[in-house]
Design brief:
0% strand; mainly alpha; globular
């Protein structure tokens, strides 16, 4: 597996896309100017949420990057530049779910 979180370490590996690294902690990135960083962060969230809905409705395999882009109103090239691949969007969705569920904290109690 690509992510150390999947192995129980609680953080994505350095090889993750910027979107996964930025959103895993559910806070906007600090590397960019504040206004820009928050705007980029919300675009990543919007894309991940749209992809989650599409994956649930049509299935992961049947959902293309073009479909995700059309749902979000973001250019396909922008989606590819931000995530690199559809699996990175799925990784982001999983990372967010783990954070929201408090799964890492619960696993640490075992």
């Amino acid at each position: 597996m690509r992510h150390s979180a999947a192995r129980g370490h609680g953080r994505p590996t350095p090889g993750c896309s910027p979107a996964v690294r930025w959103l895993a902690s559910a806070t906007p990135p600090k590397a960019l100017p504040a206004g820009h960083a928050v705007a980029v962060w919300w675009e990543f969230l919007k894309t991940a949420d749209a992809a989650r809905r599409l994956f649930a409705t049509h299935g992961y395999g049947a959902t293309s990057m073009e479909t995700i882009a059309g749902e979000t109103g973001v250019a396909v090239r922008t989606i590819y530049a931000a995530f690199g691949a559809k699996r990175e969007i799925l990784s982001l969705i999983c990372e967010r779910w783990l954070e929201e569920a408090g799964a890492r904290e619960l696993a640490g109690e075992l």
